[in-house]
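Handoff note, outgoing to incoming analyst
You'll be picking up this chain. Sequence as last confirmed:
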Amino acid sequence: MSPAMNPAMNPALNVIEIIQCKRDGGTLTPEQIRWVIGRYAADDIPDYQMSALVMAVFKEGLNADELAAWVDAMLRSGDVLDFSHVAAPKIDKHSTGGVGDKVSLPLGPMVAACGVAVPMMSGRGLGHTGGTLDKLEAIPGFRTALDPPEFRALLAQTGLVLAGQSETLVPADRRLYALRDATGTVESIPLISSSIMSKKMAEGLDGLVLDVKVGRGAFMKRPEESRTLAETMVGIGRSYGTPVRAVLTDMNQPLGCEVGNACEVAESIEVLRGGGPADLLEVTYRLGEEMLLLGGTAADRREARTRLERAVSSGAAFEKLVEVVEAQGGDPAVIHDPTLLPAAPHHHEVAAARSGYLTRCDALDLGVAAMRLGAGRERKEDSIDPGVGLRILAKVGDAVEAGQPLIRLAWADRARLDQALPLVERALEIGEERVAPPPLIHGEVS
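Most recent structure output, in case you need it:
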């Protein structure tokens, strides 16, 4: 046992007593929080004890003072990036996690092509939601692990970096992120907000846009929960002097048509070529507008939208993605020809049992189904199969005919397919009357 772990040397700084305090609804001191986060980042506290503390936080929450200390301790557990050498405004975007949420992949190149520097630090999948890093790594050779000097150099060179946390940037969060995924402690406002904002405040941003998901496939199921999460993160940004805007977007059904990794990369490329599903386009452009407004490169939302659309129609956004893929070691051939991306060898279609209207296309069930196919992780050590996934062939409100395919599953392992199919079938519901799809934008917080 290290001296820092020895209760006899400092009874107030004892991991078991800290766990018990929070478990019983007590309030942790800033000193206790700094100590336990620092010791965990230094590998002096094992996962099993940190899991117990995280579960206690999940159940009991953190008050405002505890949350401020938690964010600060995570932020100070490693390096802080300095992008002062980049003259352009530095604006990032982060999503709280959804199903089919590939927005970062087309959004980053679109915004960067409009003259805003985007140091996009992303994460891996959590639970039933996909992770931007997992999607990017479906591109052969693409490197998401960059040390701070390379990250800084690439941002100056291309105006866009799509990467994960380095070993030295908020290392406490990097470890906690994986731990939460594997211990059923993801859906917590203090844990989500501290995870996101500690990383973002370490980037030295000029502004941040948050995509806070609402609905069945989101970690926050109810609108009031999502708004509270958004307000919490906006408040954290304000305390650090960083402007933050949050847009609450729908996650009752998957966003776009693809759920997986390589298939979501392909759909993102389609957007940058001027196509793509309408719901994906609406969310992507709305978030892009907020990024340009925060960066001061557009006077109003209409001008921002025009600039983003021009970046796509001119090919500048597509070429920006190619440039970034090349700069980060990826094979640009798959961007020019997405059929070269990894693909599962088998397909299975789930068809409509009767005619009518699709009234339910449940994002949570479909997200878990994709995970069971191998597109996500049930344990933090699980590997990802980039080629498996789901294609959504009908959305809520669509008229369907008996026998019409509704979902196409791309699979590689028969046992995994058998685990996924009941969830896909449960996710779909057909009624006699048309229902309106849920609104894509539920509100905003700034």
